[in-house]
């Protein structure tokens, strides 16, 4: 596809995608939308420009590129909150999200009725979890932890090269960098070598719209005969696709997948494609994937097919690449996947909208409720989610040792989330102290900045939980309000003691590169422009 065509596809995408990263709050309004709504947007847009302009004017010195980007993100977030909370409406898409307070009350209530401390190794726990989320555990799986990008991406390239029948890739973003190019090259090489292999790629359409380098790579895939689905929802313009999984031969007898927290980019793979790739000062994010072989992968294959087929039918009208997105045809008879190990795994994938039950969060709360000894949570963004906070404090009160590790203000990748993270940690410690918990019952840690001269070099992007060193959650889900309400998210719930012990040991190693807030009073909120704005507008109910 010539460069001009790449630019045309990018222009089509930014016009069609509601949350394109343009100068305005959202996509240009069309004449088909109500005049009152168009007028509301215009007034809101100008008001926010005025308010943020005044704040910037009185900032101590000029804004850096990162600060300017963050201010633009704040503007979008204010708009998102007004839309999602129902203060303004977008026609038939008006307020299709559960109210934040009522959502947390429901999630906590559904799991608080379960006997506390019942144990995650008991048969009743697995049965209860299945009933709660409406999914089933599959037995006979082999699970291998992939700690950090080099381990995960080496496996990805091997699996793509060895695939027999299909390659299905889901990711939040395919970055326009060395790792993105290498992944695209691997997929196209496989397509050229065996055109009969079914290859599909699904990414977040809103995020793709903001990066022409990513669009150029996606265009290469389409040009090479690989369909690309840009996930978006026209009636709910802030919905996103945050799930990540590579599924190999999902309809075959020996399906394999890689899933967890990693997107397709250099920060994740740690491979920058230059002689400096081994330089320890390059951005090398801490992240966790798992490789799964066995029957669980068949379940994930069928879920991928369901999302693809539904969204492909809905998005063809605004498809920017000039392709026709066809459904994935599942054979009427599928071979029974061979048992490859002893792990039992249950997958939950949530889509946002009025019908979502937030099954990923429900399952997480169910495991917290069952804990008897320890809960270790490692998550990129630990924000104030009252249902999770209350469940953790309940666990501390019955003698469980709860430890949380997340990013600090100087390790996190986005300045706009610093205050929400600190608020989440502050609320957790405050509630634990108010409940009279033992000093070491609730332990909160934040990641250190290891490379003082580099920005975004030391981000913790990992998302897992270990309960009693017997049960694991490995997820795409951030403990983050956006993940609960606005994103396609997924998690694998794994009953496998060997994996649980391995991840618990990795958690211990990660603590050596962190520092602890022993009490809520240890947390000091920053007072820079971005932080002041974040505390003022209170974007916790929806950080877009």
Distance between the termini: 33 Å
> Oligomerization state of this entry?
single chain
Which spans of ≥5 residues are poorly predicted at pLDDT below 50?
14-33
Q: How many H/I helical runs? A: 17
Question: How would you sum up this structure, described in words?
Answer:
The protein has 544 residues and is α/β, with parallel strands linked by helices. Helix content is 41%, strand content 17%. It is built from 17 helices and 16 strands. It has helices spanning 3-16, 35-57, 65-84, 100-112, 123-133, 149-162, 178-193, 205-209, 212-223, 266-269, 295-315, 359-370, 386-397, 418-434, 481-485, 497-511, 529-537, and strands at 138-147, 166-171, 198-204, 228-231, 240-241, 245-248, 256-260, 288-293, 343-350, 374-379, 401-406, 442-447, 463-467, 471-475, 487-495, 514-517. The protein has a 16-stranded mixed sheet that branches. Helix 3 (65-84) runs parallel beside helix 17 (529-537), helix 12 packs parallel to helix 13 (386-397) and helix 13 runs parallel beside helix 14 (418-434). The longest helix is centred in the N-terminal third of the chain and has 23 residues, at 35-57. It is globular, with a radius of gyration of 23 Å. 50% of the residues are buried.
